[in-house]
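hiii, so i know i said id send this last week but things got crazy w the move. better late than never?? heres the sequnce for the chain we talked about at the cafe, plus the structure i predicted for it. fair warning i was half asleep when i ran it
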Amino acid sequence: MNPLPRQVSTARQRWIFLAIISAALFLVGADNSILYTALPELRDQLHTTPLQGLWIINAYPLVLSGLLLGTGTLGDKIGHRLMFMIGVMIFGTGSLIAAFSPTAWFLVAARGLLGVGAATMMPASLALVRITFIDARERNVAIAVWMSTAIAGAAAGPIMGGLLLEFFWWGSVFLINVPIVIVTVFAIIAVAPPNIANPAKQWDLTSSIWAMFTMLGGVMAIKELANSHRNMWVFSTAVVIGIIGLLLFIFRQRKLDEPLLDTAIFRNRMFTGGTITAGLMMFNVAGVELMTTQRFQTAADFSALQAGALVASVAVLAVPAALLGGSILHKVGFIPLTTGGFSLVAVGIGLSLWTFGMDSLWPFIASLLLVGLGSGLATSVASTAILGAAPVDKAGMASSVESVSYEFGTLISVAIFGSLLPFFYALSAPTEVSGDVDHGVDHPVYGPAAVAAYDSAYLIILAIVGVVAVIGAIVTAYCFRGNPKEADLVASQ
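okay and structure toks below
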């Protein structure tokens, strides 16, 4: 018998253990978005260019996504408790380095180290949840709590950043992690169950490196393709890097007895549906949060705190919706929560397009509340579908794929929308300010026209998010056809 469930036998012990894991996971989610409100400050203090700003944000999810497949399997090998501890300590170290970064590119490197720590923590935390909570319904609620914590962190990131920037320098958005990391380390030592390792399990770092090269090439290609002054040499190089990385990754998997990613697992439509739900929903939420904070800070003269508070409205309903979804899954099934969630996001985006130009901001806030409600319902059960549909012997792989889905959605969203914003802005902005999306709105003559161009670009991006939400509703309705109520039942078919 696995000793871990015996060590966390009482309900009180299990939920305390979940609370410890969730505290660290909150930081992982927050660091995805905490810099959204800090970008204007970084432009002033570190003199970052738009390209550097995007890499400062993207370095974190890029490294995180590239390493996640490998760290999940490594956790199976050395034990998920040990992996979680290592990840927390790396995350704390990266936070200290990032807080005192002297240059923009130094900060990019520090964000990459944060990604290493997060990649070590995330699959380990989810694997521990699955092992600890044996009862299916209790596990569904636990996973919903786990997921709602990540949602809360991502949603709270902008307002945390805005609040800190209101009183402290930009490095404080990273320094805030350190005391929480210290408390988490001591709590894990005191409360967590013994480490369970499987030394016979194979782990392959090379596969993770090729996966990262694939994502790096893809992100660079997206950025350069959306650049109105694109350099075809850079674009071509990025495409080549991405293709070579992908081919090497696929070739490597075929040679391994235990590949990091077994594509056969995607034949289970429940697993695929959960993966698509996680990726597309984070694509939508990250796009809305990043673009909204930038629009209201740049074109509406909001402070970092005001912009952060605005997008934090997404979390007002997202967190309780995630908890609700996990608790009622066994009654209502997947379709009302996944397809219904994407439908609510689409309605919320439609409402935001309609209310954007109104004198009162409250109708627009209501639209963000709907986006949060839909995202919370859908993501609450995406992880359940992924983990429940995967065989028990592939728990580490499933945890990694689950985490990659969320982070890859965020990564691609930032890369695409962060590149499309200046592209769409340049289409309608006056020539004199078309190349300066960050400061064109401050021009003494062309400022009003630049604001109109910025708003036009922002609304186009919102419309794209709405279309993606509709696609998500259609795809999940297909994947979860028949409206199953427990992923475990599908896995046993």
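btw The chain has a mean pLDDT of 80. thought thatd interest u
miss u guys!!
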